[in-house]
Amino acid sequence: AGTGKFVVGGNWKCNGNTASITQLVKDLNKGEIDADVDVIVAPPMLYLPKVQSTIDRQFKLSAQNCWVSEGGAFTGEVSAEMLADANVPWVILGHSERRALCGESDEFVGKKVAYAIKNGLSVMACIGETLQERESGATQDVCRRQLQAIVNELSAGDWEKVVIAYEPVWAIGTGKVATPEQAQETHAGIRAFMASAVSQDVASKVRIQYGGSVNGQLQELAKQEDIDGFLVGGASLIGDAFITICNSAK
Ligand code: PEP
């Protein structure tokens, strides 16, 4: 397992409004989270300051994306500098929805991760295969290719600021959770790749989250040797469900 605390992210995606987010923050604030878990929530960009000023300190804040380089003439984008300036310590990069729907390439994601780290942010960097890729036996190749593009841009020390989120695309928002064996096998492959591509030290320390229809009781997944946390979409919009997931490592 990676060293460091179990780490759970809640990706709210493009969901919610003032009323529902106010309620969600209230529900989250009622939750008691084990002290040895890092919990990070990623509201839509527009609501980040509101959540930041109302949510308990036990929750760290994340954006769901940022620009690939210094801000400027990039209409509609938010830069890593702005996130750092606004005291948002984390950002999710390379989510499969952005790769698939916004055409983000492996190389672009790699550059984003590097630029975010350069600006002091920590990153949940997402990778994962589609159903077709899994069925054709390409899972490990796809994960390695996506990771290599990040490895190319980082120095070994930068990996302290990265959590890898393995999210099989076929499991995202589908209700199909990878089995503990499937997830463990891929996580172990990711760790082995990190040992060869970066170093044994980084491979043994980096935390690897599983994401994809995570909901409810997840002890079996959390128990796996190479699963160090979860990245949660749908269930992170339901306060008590998310708290249960955060506490599932015990
Ligand atoms: C995600 O998109 O990061 C995710 C894991 O979504 P869900 O939990 O809804 O499958």
UniProtKB/TrEMBL annotation:
The name this protein goes by in its record: Triosephosphate isomerase
Pathway connected to this protein: Carbohydrate biosynthesis
Oligomer and partners: Homodimer.
Family the entry assigns: Belongs to the triosephosphate isomerase family.
Coiled coil: none
GO cellular component: cytosol
Region of the whole protein represented: 65 to 314 of 318
Entry keyword annotation includes Isomerase: yes
Origin species: Micromonas pusilla (strain CCMP1545)
